[in-house]
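Notes to self after the Tuesday call (sharing in case useful).
The group wants a holo model before anyone commits to mutagenesis around the pocket. I volunteered. Ligand is zinc ion. Logging inputs and output together so the record is complete.
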Amino acid sequence: MIKLRVQGTREEVDEFIKIAPEYFEVLQCSQPYENRGVSKFVRVYMDMLQKPPRDCKFKIQEISKGLWGLVCSECHKIVQCQHQNPKLLEGSEYAIGYGFKCCPYCKANVTEVTYE
Ligand SMILES: [Zn+2]
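Result:
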Protein backbone atom coordinates (compact mmCIF):
# COMPACT_ATOMS: atom_id res chain seq x y z
CA MET A 1 0.00 0.00 0.00
CA ILE A 2 1.16 3.51 -0.77
CA LYS A 3 0.73 6.05 2.02
CA LEU A 4 1.11 9.56 0.76
CA ARG A 5 1.24 12.93 2.43
CA VAL A 6 0.20 15.62 -0.05
CA GLN A 7 1.02 19.23 0.71
CA GLY A 8 0.33 22.37 -1.27
CA THR A 9 -2.12 25.20 -1.60
CA ARG A 10 -5.76 24.22 -1.14
CA GLU A 11 -6.29 24.41 -4.92
CA GLU A 12 -3.23 22.27 -5.70
CA VAL A 13 -4.22 19.62 -3.17
CA ASP A 14 -7.84 19.58 -4.45
CA GLU A 15 -6.56 19.12 -8.00
CA PHE A 16 -4.31 16.24 -6.94
CA ILE A 17 -7.18 14.52 -5.11
CA LYS A 18 -9.28 14.90 -8.27
CA ILE A 19 -6.77 13.31 -10.67
CA ALA A 20 -5.22 10.67 -8.36
CA PRO A 21 -7.98 8.05 -9.05
CA GLU A 22 -6.94 8.03 -12.71
CA TYR A 23 -3.60 6.54 -11.69
CA PHE A 24 -4.21 4.83 -8.34
CA GLU A 25 -6.98 3.12 -6.47
CA VAL A 26 -7.59 5.59 -3.64
CA LEU A 27 -8.60 3.72 -0.48
CA GLN A 28 -8.79 6.64 1.86
CA CYS A 29 -8.21 10.39 1.86
CA SER A 30 -8.17 12.50 5.00
CA GLN A 31 -9.75 15.90 5.36
CA PRO A 32 -7.37 18.80 4.63
CA TYR A 33 -5.39 20.00 7.63
CA GLU A 34 -4.06 23.53 7.71
CA ASN A 35 -0.38 23.88 8.50
CA ARG A 36 0.57 25.71 11.65
CA GLY A 37 1.44 29.39 11.68
CA VAL A 38 0.89 31.69 8.72
CA SER A 39 1.45 28.97 6.11
CA LYS A 40 -0.91 29.01 3.14
CA PHE A 41 -0.47 25.27 2.68
CA VAL A 42 -2.73 22.42 3.62
CA ARG A 43 -1.99 18.71 3.78
CA VAL A 44 -3.96 15.53 3.30
CA TYR A 45 -3.03 11.90 3.92
CA MET A 46 -3.93 9.34 1.29
CA ASP A 47 -3.86 5.53 1.28
CA MET A 48 -3.63 4.15 -2.24
CA LEU A 49 -3.01 0.95 -4.17
CA GLN A 50 -1.39 0.54 -7.53
CA LYS A 51 -3.95 -0.17 -10.19
CA PRO A 52 -3.62 -3.48 -12.02
CA PRO A 53 -2.38 -3.01 -15.58
CA ARG A 54 -5.17 -2.38 -18.07
CA ASP A 55 -5.33 -2.73 -21.81
CA CYS A 56 -6.89 -0.37 -24.32
CA LYS A 57 -7.33 -0.09 -28.05
CA PHE A 58 -6.75 3.03 -30.07
CA LYS A 59 -9.40 3.72 -32.67
CA ILE A 60 -8.64 5.93 -35.62
CA GLN A 61 -11.67 7.99 -36.51
CA GLU A 62 -12.52 11.20 -38.31
CA ILE A 63 -12.98 13.79 -35.58
CA SER A 64 -14.15 16.51 -37.96
CA LYS A 65 -13.97 16.92 -41.73
CA GLY A 66 -10.44 16.03 -42.84
CA LEU A 67 -9.10 15.69 -39.31
CA TRP A 68 -8.36 12.20 -38.04
CA GLY A 69 -7.78 11.42 -34.41
CA LEU A 70 -6.76 8.54 -32.27
CA VAL A 71 -9.28 7.76 -29.53
CA CYS A 72 -8.51 5.62 -26.48
CA SER A 73 -11.09 2.90 -25.75
CA GLU A 74 -10.56 3.23 -22.00
CA CYS A 75 -10.61 6.96 -21.25
CA HIS A 76 -12.18 8.07 -24.58
CA LYS A 77 -9.72 10.95 -24.89
CA ILE A 78 -8.35 12.08 -28.24
CA VAL A 79 -4.67 11.20 -28.09
CA GLN A 80 -3.39 12.45 -31.44
CA CYS A 81 -4.77 14.27 -34.48
CA GLN A 82 -3.54 14.75 -38.01
CA HIS A 83 -4.86 16.14 -41.29
CA GLN A 84 -3.46 13.50 -43.59
CA ASN A 85 -5.63 10.57 -44.56
CA PRO A 86 -4.40 7.85 -42.19
CA LYS A 87 -5.06 5.15 -44.82
CA LEU A 88 -2.27 6.60 -46.98
CA LEU A 89 0.26 6.26 -44.20
CA GLU A 90 -0.90 2.95 -42.81
CA GLY A 91 2.02 0.80 -41.68
CA SER A 92 4.59 3.59 -41.93
CA GLU A 93 6.33 5.29 -39.06
CA TYR A 94 4.36 8.44 -39.88
CA ALA A 95 1.07 6.63 -39.36
CA ILE A 96 -1.25 7.99 -36.74
CA GLY A 97 -0.80 6.02 -33.55
CA TYR A 98 2.65 4.76 -34.49
CA GLY A 99 4.90 4.12 -31.51
CA PHE A 100 2.35 4.41 -28.70
CA LYS A 101 2.87 1.73 -26.06
CA CYS A 102 0.46 3.22 -23.58
CA CYS A 103 -2.18 5.93 -23.48
CA PRO A 104 -0.63 9.20 -22.24
CA TYR A 105 -3.84 9.99 -20.31
CA CYS A 106 -5.02 6.78 -18.62
CA LYS A 107 -1.73 4.81 -18.96
CA ALA A 108 -3.49 1.68 -20.26
CA ASN A 109 -1.35 -0.54 -22.50
CA VAL A 110 -2.17 -0.19 -26.17
CA THR A 111 -2.81 -3.63 -27.65
CA GLU A 112 -4.19 -2.62 -31.03
CA VAL A 113 -4.71 0.36 -33.32
CA THR A 114 -7.81 -0.03 -35.47
CA TYR A 115 -9.77 1.97 -38.02
CA GLU A 116 -13.42 2.75 -37.43
ZN1 LIG B 1 -6.63 6.32 -22.34
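Two things stood out.
The pocket of zinc ion is lined by residues 56, 72, 74-75, 77, 103, 105-106, 108 (CB under 6 Å).
The first helix runs from residue 10 to 23.
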